[in-house]
Design a protein that fits this description.
This protein is of the alpha/beta class. The protein has nine helices and ten strands. The chain is globular.
Length: 272
C-alpha cells in the first residue's frame, strides 16, 4: 500500500504541473521531500496537502516554493581544475571556429556564465562568442542579469580565479560599491539571459559548447535520459559537453556518441 506522504507528493506535483506547467514529477525523491518539508515549515503549515492548497491559490507562495525547489549552490570559478582543463583542452578547439555558441543550462544566479565570459575574454574569444544563460527560475535569472554579487565573496572568488588560471587581477572585472561588487557591463555584451526548463522545453539552437553541471544529479533516471537527449540534439558534431563531477554519460544511450576530453573533469566531445 503506498505511503500517504508519497501520495500527497504525487498530488502536489501533478497539481503544479497542470496549473503552472512546471514539471517536477521526475525529480529525485529524497531531495524533493527535503525541499517540500522546508517550504511547509517556512509557510507555517503542517501537511503536504496544505501546501498543495496554498501553492495552487497563492502565486507568491508558488514563487517561494520554486526558490526552495531550485538548487542554487554556485560560485565563480567553482572547481578550478575544470576551468584549467577547459583552457588547455577546449580553448584550442574553439579557436578554430569563426563564431562560438555556448549554452549554460541551469545557470542559476549567473556565477558560472560570468566566469566563462572572463575566461573567453582572456583567451581572445569573447568578441566572437554568444553565451546563452538559461534557468527555469526567473527570479534567479533576473539576479544573474544584474551582475551584482556580495562584495564579501570577492576574496574567495579571487582565490578561485587564480587557481583556475586567471591571467590578470580579478578586481579589474568589477567595481566595488558599498557592500556589492558590480561586474563590468562589457562582460554582458554577448550574454543572452532567458527562461528555459530542461524538463519541458525543447532545443532552441545548435551549440559548440554546453554546460549542464550539477543539475542532473537532482533528476531521476527517466528525466536524466530526457535531458541527455536534449543536450545531444543541441550540440553540433564535435561540440563539447561539460558535466558536474558527480555526473556521467555512463549507462546512458549516448555514452558511445562522445569521447572523453578529460575524464576527471567530465568534459566530453560529441563524435557522432
Amino acid at each position: 500500500m503506498p505511503h500517504l506522504e508519497d501520495i500527497e507528493i504525487q498530488l502536489l506535483l501533478e497539481g503544479i504541473y497542470r496549473y503552472y506547467g512546471l514539471d517536477f514529477r521526475n525529480y529525485a525523491l529524497a531531495s524533493l521531500k527535503r525541499r517540500i518539508w522546508n517550504t511547509i515549515r517556512a509557510e507555517n503549515l503542517t501537511t503536504i496537502s496544505a501546501l498543495q492548497e496554498k501553492v495552487l491559490h497563492d502565486r507568491e507562495c508558488m514563487e517561494r516554493f520554486l526558490l526552495n525547489l531550485s538548487v542554487h549552490v554556485t560560485s565563480m570559478f567553482r572547481d578550478a581544475d575544470f576551468y584549467i582543463a577547459f583552457r588547455n583542452k577546449v580553448i584550442p578547439l574553439l579557436k578554430t571556429y569563426p563564431f562560438i555558441r555556448i549554452w549554460h543550462a541551469g545557470c542559476s544566479t549567473g556565477e558560472e556564465v560570468y566566469s566563462m565570459a572572463i575566461l573567453l575574454q582572456e583567451e581572445g574569444l569573447y568578441h566572437r562568442s554568444r553565451l546563452y544563460a538559461t534557468d527555469m527560475n526567473e527570479t534567479v535569472l533576473r539576479k544573474a542579469k544584474e551582475g551584482i554579487f556580495p562584495l564579501e565573496l570577492m576574496q574567495q572568488y579571487t582565490h578561485n580565479y587564480l587557481q583556475a588560471g586567471g591571467k590578470t587581477y580579478f578586481s579589474e572585472y568589477y567595481t566595488a560599491a558599498y557592500d556589492s561588487a558590480i561586474f563590468r557591463s562589457s562582460l554582458k555584451d554577448n550574454i543572452v539571459f532567458s527562461p528555459h526548463n530542461l524538463v519541458t522545453d525543447s532545443s532552441f539552437n545548435e551549440f559548440n559548447v554546453i554546460f549542464c553541471r550539477n543539475v542532473l544529479i537532482y533528476f531521476d533516471k527517466t528525466l536524466q535520459q530526457r535531458v541527455h537527449h536534449l543536450l545531444y540534439e543541441s550540440l553540433i558534431r564535435f561540440g563539447i559537453l561539460g558535466l558536474g563531477r558527480q555526473e556521467s554519460l555512463k549507462f546512458t544511450p549516448y555514452e558511445q556518441q562522445y569521447e572523453a576530453l578529460d575524464v576527471r573533469e567530465k568534459l566530453y566531445r560529441r563524435i557522432s
